[in-house]
Design brief:
With 572 residues, the protein is α+β, with helices and mostly antiparallel strands. The protein has 14 helices and 30 strands. Among the domains are: 146 residues, Immunoglobulin-like (Sandwich), CATH 2.60.40; 137 residues, Neutral Protease Domain 2 (Neutral Protease, domain 2, Orthogonal Bundle); 77 residues, no CATH class. The strands form eight sheets. Strands 5-4-10-2-1-13-16-15 form an eight-stranded mixed beta sheet, with no helix packed on it. A five-stranded mixed beta sheet has the order 18-19-20-22-21, covered by helices on one side. It starts with a helix and ends with a strand.
């Protein structure tokens, strides 16, 4: 596939956000397996994941893996059946609780039930418990098999078995949406992150290097073999799909950033023959981090460092180990998604995927139906990056240019409880929604305070869209509920219909093509003039100055807000 076809194929996948399942989504046909994966149930809700300790040994020649996963969890209730997700054709071999074998069975192609015995009991004194706290438990799962192979990563994911240009093995995983259970057993539910972090030990031939999230804590040459194990530790909560091994002929170079919370370690892992290109292109990391710390607050994972890891696919927001595959080019594989030229001044993957450290990795949605919080805010981080370095006019142009990519094919928010994303419009339409709300607030210090407040209030948490919507409305001092409903839950683009009476310098206006309660305020301004309107779906009339009328009848409204305008008639 040539580069042009790769680019357009990538955009198709990006816009669809799961194009292979669009027909199923439109018909709303979901299976019991979808519910088992996408929602809590009696075998999931009684235990809280505290930590994953994963060991994996890939066999490149046979495309198989062997693994061990220790899951530390806190029981919230006294129950014994635990749901573990592991996707076919991978197989669980055995399960231990301490040193005791546990019985298990496969109830679905991707779901296993473990019947736990010998769970720790509540401490009791006489007939009354002295504490309702149940001690933490740990199960260890041994498994093996041939994991699903990625067809077009990162969009159609799985385990990636590739070779670099010198013929050396190059392996990784891409599993957003598909789920981490495609390569290791876990509670594959986005709303339950391991509170105490994770470790990943990767055992590979000693000719290769293995990289993962967090910090490298141990490298061990395995006796009487040609294998080496690399152990990486993550201290912070991390979502299942973000824990990823990367294996190849990697070399490393490092740097530091004096950031808002002190010294942030920066580490870069690239294929040996790309190190010179990487050292030049990755100079963009520090400016990116400075811009995002300004807008969003401190980088959320100082304890685990910041890394870029060259990947055998375009890129992904793997926490503290951003996957980078943009060929050391500016733009998106050398192209500007906005068509304005501003997107060619910086590396799209460095900026976009790193923006996810705040929105997706720090603030994570419980249900992927709300994934606009990940993609909308992160897509908007590009606009904010442009503004930080090139000014507000450039940022407005960049954001406006993204609109040509919006399809309005389906609502941004998907169906809850069945592991289903909404429309791929969560990217560009989500960014334009935030730009619209920002101009409606018309108070940049307050808007920045809201962005930073989100990352502080929901620090290392999983959230719902309702929580984020309420927070923004509360801090902005205006109830944006009807605005969020319009842009997140419908496909209509609101139209401001208006007519001007020049005799008395009045304007009559209303919102159409929208929900009946749509009430987006408009604040339109230039260097000398401000117009504030509060349109509703019923007609209203305001008297304006000549300069204010010029602003209204120009094209500024459509540039600053994701709306259409329609001048009905002009009265003399």
């Amino acid at each position: 596939m040539n580069k042009k076809l790769i680019f357009f194929a990538s955009i198709i996948f990006l816009l669809s956000a799961n194009s292979f399942a669009q027909t199923s989504e439109k018909k709303n046909t979901f299976t019991h397996a979808d519910t088992l994966r996408g929602s809590l149930n009696e075998n999931r809700d009684w235990w809280d994941v505290l930590r994953y300790d994963i060991t994996v040994t890939p066999d490149y020649d046979n495309k198989t893996i062997q693994g061990i996963v220790a899951i530390t969890f806190s029981p919230l209730k006294e129950k014994k059946t635990i749901q573990i997700d592991l996707q076919s054709p991978l197989i669980i071999d055995s399960v231990l609780l301490l040193k005791s074998k546990q019985s298990f069975s496969k109830v679905d192609s991707n779901v296993w039930l473990i019947q736990l015995k010998n769970l720790k009991k509540k401490i009791t004194k006489g007939k009354e418990p002295v504490s309702v706290i149940i001690p933490d438990e740990k199960i260890t799962i041994y498994y093996h098999g041939k994991p699903r192979e990625a067809k077009f990563p990162p969009w159609d994911g799985g385990w990636i078995w590739k070779k670099d240009k010198n013929g050396n093995p190059w392996m990784s995983v891409a599993c957003q949406g598909l789920g981490a259970s495609v390569w290791y057993p876990c509670k594959d539910y986005q709303g339950d992150e391991p509170d105490s972090g994770a470790s990943l030990t990767i055992i590979v031939p000693d000719t290769l290097v293995a990289v993962a999230n967090g910090r490298l804590t141990n490298t061990l040459k395995i006796a009487n073999s040609s294998l080496t194990s690399y152990t990486w530790q993550v201290k912070n909560p991390i979502n299942n799909y973000l824990i990823i091994p990367s294996i190849g002929k990697y070399v490393n170079f490092a740097d530091t950033l004096h950031g808002e919370k002190g010294i942030l370690n920066l580490s870069y892992w690239v294929l040996d023959y790309n190190i010179n290109e990487a050292k030049e292109q990755f100079k963009q990391v520090k400016p990116m981090l400075r811009a995002f710390e300004y807008w969003f607050g401190p980088y959320p994972f100082y304890e685990d460092s910041y890394k870029l890891v060259q990947s055998p696919h375009l890129g992904m927001e793997h926490q503290s180990a951003i996957a980078y595959g943009n060929q050391f080019k500016n733009g998106y594989l050398g192209r500007d998604l906005s068509g304005t030229g501003w997107g060619l001044k910086w590396d799209y993957i460095i900026v976009h995927e790193s923006g996810h450290e705040w929105f997706a990795n720090n603030i994570t949605t419980k249900d992927i139906a709300d994934m606009w919080i990940h993609e909308g805010f992160t897509d908007y981080s590009e606009t904010l990056f442009v503004e930080y370095y090139y000014g507000k006019k450039a940022a407005n142009e960049y954001n406006y240019g993204l609109r040509k990519n919006i399809q309005n094919d389906a609502p941004i928010i998907g169906m809850y409880g069945v592991n289903k994303e909404g429309s791929g419009d969560m990217y560009f339409k989500g960014a334009n929604l935030l730009h619209t709300i920002r101009h409606s607030i018309n108070n940049d210090p307050l808007f920045r305070k809201i962005l930073r407040g989100l990352n502080k209030t929901f620090y290392h948490q999983t959230v719902t869209s309702a929580q984020i919507e309420k927070y923004i409305s509360t801090k902005a001092g205006f109830n944006y509920n009807n605005v969020f409903n319009q842009y997140l839950r419908t496909t209509q683009i609101p139209v401001l219909e208006f007519s001007v009476n020049k005799n008395n310098q009045s304007i009559t206006y209303q919102w159409t093509n929208c929900n009946k309660n749509f009430n987006l305020p408009l604040r339109i301004y230039n260097d000398t003039t401000l117009v504030t309107l509060f349109p509703e779906t019923k007609q209203k009339t305001s008297t304006l100055t000549t300069e204010q009328l010029k602003l209204i009848t120009g094209n500024l409204i459509e540039q600053l807000y994701y709306v259409k305008t329609k001048q009905i008639a002009q009265t003399n």
